[in-house]
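PT: before anyone asks, these are the final sequences, not the draft ones from last week. 704 residues across everything. Please model them as a single complex and drop the result in this thread when it's through.
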Amino acid sequence: MTEPATANPIPKDPIPEDTVQATLAYQIGNDRPTDDPMLQAIQEEVGQDFAPPESLLSTNFTTETYQENEVFRCINLTKSYGHGISYTEVIKGINFNVLEGEYIVIYGPSGSGKSTLLHLLAGLEVPTRGDIYVRNHPIHRLNDEELTYYHREEVGLVFQNFNLLESLSVWENVSFPLMLAGAPREWRQHEALKMLERFGLADFATHLPSQLSGGQQQRVALARALIHDPEILLIDEPTGNLDSHSANIVIHEIDRLHKQEKRTIILVTHSQVFLPFATRVFYIRDGTLLTSNEPSRLNST
Amino acid sequence: MNQVASIRPSDLISLAWSALKRNRLRSLLTVGAIAVGIAVMMYLISLGLGLERLTLDSVAQSSSLLSITVKSGSDQLQPLNQDAFHKIKAIPKVKEVLPQLTLKGVLSLDNQKTNATIVGVDPDYLQVGSSTPLLAGRYFQPQDAQTMLVTPGFLKLFGLDTSKNPLVIFNVVIQQENNLPDISGSNLDSISVSGIVNASGVAVYMPRQYLEQILGANRPNYDNFIVTVGSLNDVQPVSDALIANGFKISKVIDTVDQIEKVFFWIRAVLAGLGGIAVVVATIGMFNTLTISLLERTREIGIMKALGVKRTDIRRLFLTESVLMGLLGGGIGILTALFAQQLTIFVLALLASLVQGNVPVLFDNQWTLIVGFILFAILISGLTGIFPAQRASRINPIEAIRYE
Ligand SMILES: Nc1ncnc2c1ncn2[C@@H]1O[C@H](COP(=O)(O)OP(=O)(O)O)[C@@H](O)[C@H]1O
Ligand SMILES: [Mg+2]
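LR: through. Structure below.
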């Protein structure tokens, strides 16, 4: 165990989001000065009613053509649910691209379509209209085999609710993606233990997920997303259900994945704590994206 | 992009096993239902087969299947006399014609006396034609004279041991019968017992030629002929020829056919009862798999999102159901075997009270056991197809988003 037994028992009522954010932003977020104009601009916007000024409303953050170092490109991406009276447009024709090594934080209130957008990027949802490319391959037109390949080889997914497989042990969960490729069990176990070691969870390898705290489960989920060494990480609300200590570890680990391992990260969240680490922040509201900075300006890594 | 690999079968089994273990109670209920179904079916079918075999064993020894009995009777067109004997002998493919002479007589030993049927036959009649096994002593030879075989019922009347040759000598008087030539007073002195045969009633069997010699011209018509043929294929043509010649016949093979027919239906009814149990079990399993599917949509969604192929999801569900089927089948077979032993034990206990013995009631051919295992696999596989198909179609996102 890396955590002292007395530290940070999971509180019954989670610490209010605001206090956690405030503390953490200054604890860890010293990579970016807090007087960063972009951060301030967004924090202002987030304020009470989430209403961005007209000047920030833009839906075009991309070029229409493929560039060498481009990972994702979305063009007029639209997702709607239902028909007739129940018709709702959750993603409203957004355009953006993501370049290699970027750490994109998509920041917005609950219900703004963040998870939907992430699922579209993960190829788990099919767009209603528009195009979505990964390395210039149209994700929405991949067949079952190609999509499977994308999930297994290129992208690591961390879901909003950990989404561990309850019937499998921790190490089996972590090495699950390796099993799909037909890797032998001993090797999988070895790899999983290495990964768990890194997240300070080696002692829990044979536990079931239900025997772990939320923070530990989130780290297991992160370990699972990394086991096949994907270039791209798609992460949904990684600190949503965590106490501040666990959140701290997770925030830090994700930052390391970006800075040291040069992975391309897209993280969606309604929490401000991630903003200081991002190379770019997209603000999302009612399915519309806005940002205040160009990739070139902020891509400091 | 290249073909993506599939999950290894060993991993598939261990995944399926974890899933079954996780829903232990439900898995146990399903496996139990299959086990009960298979056990009931196996118990009943092996009982049916066992009873049939017992019945057939008592009716037909393999040699008696090759014999046809020509019977006498008032409606018989042909009297069973020497003419008839030669006529039958001349039919192609007939191997032997074994006549039986039936007389009434009084047999006495010291001052004890009894009426008995005196049957004049050739030794082959007993050994080959009618499969009458020897209990003690030996058969007589065709040329033997003052010797006879007796039934246990006959010996009991004289208070003699029925398990060994009594080595006694009887005095025999052949008696007159209605509408037969007068043979009263034919007195045969000192007939010794050569053995005991397993036949019912109070009867003695004597060499036919000896009796005919004693009776001379007074010899009555034969009671019946046993006609033997060389192979099963000859039974039908010879039977047809006999009927064409005006003889009345019966064949053991007909009886066997009838027994088989009856037992086919008995087996079918028993299998039907077992089948109902299996159907109930199958519905239970289908239900379980479907419920399990609904409960596990989330898990399936996660698996898909992590890159499990549709076909692998299908394979996983099929593996789970076949695993349950195999377990249920195996436990069911063991249960049936146990129940059989229990039945035999209880019957043996009851039988020991009345000094009887219990026949082998159940017929567990290994083909039956293998058949049931295959059946369990087949049923569970078929039951799993639909839920597996549904599982593979689950939209991962809906599964992940909503709990
Ligand atoms: N399958 C669906 N059918 C109908 N509405 C949906 C579906 N999935 C998501 N939504 C709606 O889309 C909106 C955005 O959801 P989501 O992407 O989960 O938001 P966020 O992750 O930002 O909280 C919500 O209003 C939600 O109710
Ligand atoms: Mg969400």
